[in-house]
TrEMBL record:
Keywords linked to the UniProt accession: Lyase, Metal-binding
The keyword S-adenosyl-L-methionine is annotated on this UniProt entry: no
Record Pfam families: Aldolase_II
Record-annotated Class II aldolase/adducin N-terminal domain positions: 1-139
Protein name listed in UniProt: Class II aldolase/adducin family protein
Coiled coil: none
Species, as recorded: Microbacterium binotii
PANTHER family named among the record's database cross-references: 3-OXO-TETRONATE 4-PHOSPHATE DECARBOXYLASE-RELATED (PTHR22789:SF0), FUCULOSE PHOSPHATE ALDOLASE (PTHR22789)
């Protein structure tokens, strides 16, 4: 269980997959994680989180993309693309996920799960949680009707409002 993992059970590898620390063989998904890290902007991405979260995985079974249905999704770069299915651990999966992540901090993997990126592990986990929340939100909305997606103009308006207001940044109260 991930929650019970100890530092002694963690294996550290180079970007070439060479084990540099740890007694355990690296995960079968090493090619996926390393492929994503190799092609991500190093100044923006330092961690990858790969999950099989239920809503992200469920939507990966039926969609090619989760449209932008909430402005928070813009923090991930926009619509959540679904990479085509390839067997776990394969170089093909790593390439497909890399393409789905282009310009994004999260993507779904068809019939598999999700991947989220961040500048460090804390931010990658936050993006994985946001991905699952967006998928849950979409699923619930879709259960009662067709979700209203934010078009390009609405997305741009959100970006402009966030920039203008310093959204998400601590600000001193004006007195």
């Amino acid at each position: 269980m991930l929650g019970e993992l100890t530092p002694e059970q963690v294996t550290i590898v180079t970007l070439d997959g060479e084990v540099v620390e740890g007694d355990w063989a690296p995960t079968s998904e090493t090619a996926l994680h390393l492929g994503v890290l190799r092609h991500a902007p190093a100044d923006q991405v330092g961690a990858v989180v790969h999950t099989h979260a239920p809503m992200a995985t469920s939507l990966s079974l039926v969609l090619d993309e989760v449209p932008v249905v909430h402005y928070q999704q813009l923090l991930l770069g926009g619509a959540l693309r679904v990479a085509p299915f390839h067997p776990f651990g394969s170089v093909e999966l790593a390439h497909a996920v890399g393409a789905a992540l282009d310009g994004r901090l999260a993507a779904l993997m068809a019939n598999h799960g999700a991947v989220a990126l961040g500048r460090d592990l804390v931010h990658a986990v936050e993006n994985a949680l946001l991905t699952e929340w967006i998928c849950d939100l979409y699923w619930h909305a879709r259960a009662i009707g067709e979700p209203r997606a934010l078009d390009a103009a609405a997305q741009q308006a959100v970006v402009e409002a966030a920039t203008r207001r310093g959204y998400g940044q601590p600000q001193r109260a004006e007195r």
